[in-house]
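A student in our group prepared the protein record below, which I am reviewing. What it holds is a sequence and that sequence's fold in token form. My question to you is simply how this chain folds and whether the tokens agree. Do not assume that whoever made the record got everything right. I have pasted the whole thing underneath without changing anything:
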Amino acid sequence: MSELSRTITEVNRFRADILARYAETPLLQHSLSDIKRVVIINSSSRSGSSLLYSLLAGLPEVYAPTGEAAPFYKLNSDHDGFAPYVSDKIATGLLDDVMDYAGLSRDFLSDLFLAETETVTSRIDAGRYVDDLMLRLSLQWPDVVSEPSKLRECAAGAFQEYAGRNRTFAVEEFYLCLLERLTAVWPEINPFYYDISTDRVALRFPYTEVPAGPPDSRFTIEEPPFILLPPRRRPTPADLSDKILLLKSTVDCYRMNLVERLFPAAEIRIIHLQRNPAATINGIYDGWLHRGFFSHNLQPFFEANGDLKKLRIKGYSDLYPFGRSWWNFDLPEGWQSVADRELVEVCAFQWRSANAEILRHLDGSRRSSCAVHFEDVIRGAESRLLEFERLLDFMGVPSEQCAALALDALPVVQSTLPPQLYRWKRREDMITKVLNAPRIREMAETLGYRTDTMEGWL
């Protein structure tokens, strides 16, 4: 058994012990086959899906996981039964052999929440919230599962301390308190891996260095930046039929066959979120150089493959020791062909591959779909409102629910740098070069982005 498989077994055992306390709750008496309405956001990485997801998850008619489903896929798949280092795709014929559907159902249902966040600290169910924190921390720092009593002590103590000082619950402030306790027990836990601004973390942890590499030298279950878990209400069994399950995981571009298998009774609608290639490629480029988004340690592949022994990505592998084995973001088929290219070419390859997979699935699917250009979301308040009214109509949600979304100001979510329009122009020369590649230019035009208009791309 590989080290990854052993760790996944330990994390699953840890999580099962916690979830056993809630096995008789009404929601966990159900399965994913009881879900009737699904809306999934499909896009390439760094196309704005985290922002769109966070906004749509605020709808009263929506419930959603706390983050991406990718960690649950890792926990509930037989990594020896398919080729996880070849690509993120799993052949349809292998799904029943390599996926633990019961485990996936349990993990999905235990992680579903409604939009409403509890802001009055005294109203929070402290015991359940501590259990939820432990479940999430097991995905972010798998080694903590070996000391469950210490982890519970840290989480419960942090909440008790915070509740004693604060009537109003603010999730970032609570997490800074929680991280102080966690780092005292596990010094390897670095607060800079969380989705909190670097400046705010640095003020609270002035003697902690900002990391460059992955949070674990072996593998990741949840990719950083790690999400923060607020206390929220859970859906009821009736909501599985009446409300909309919202999903967003970039790996789903390659695994829509699995999504279809997980929700056999659901009406599935697909939002194809598109963004101009210059901004997206630039965002992926920033992500490769960031302390987050580490998805695959390819060392097992290199050890088993006689022809390819390491990554040689120029502008990445030659800058960082971990850059010879760690891949960021999604892993498309044919990644070996760019393993020795310039980093910007790798980013362009990932942008094209994800959109090609989405279009391929839509072309062969009878599912309803809606194309959304991210530029229409960030262009301004008027454009955003019109786009969301169109989106809600597609989802089957009354347009008046737009009022619940606070669209006047956009939150900052999973960002490597402060949001800025036209940020790609800092790398205009190198990006223009890859946009001239025929396959990249062809995909850009297919999505409605003509390179002769790129000066106006946001």
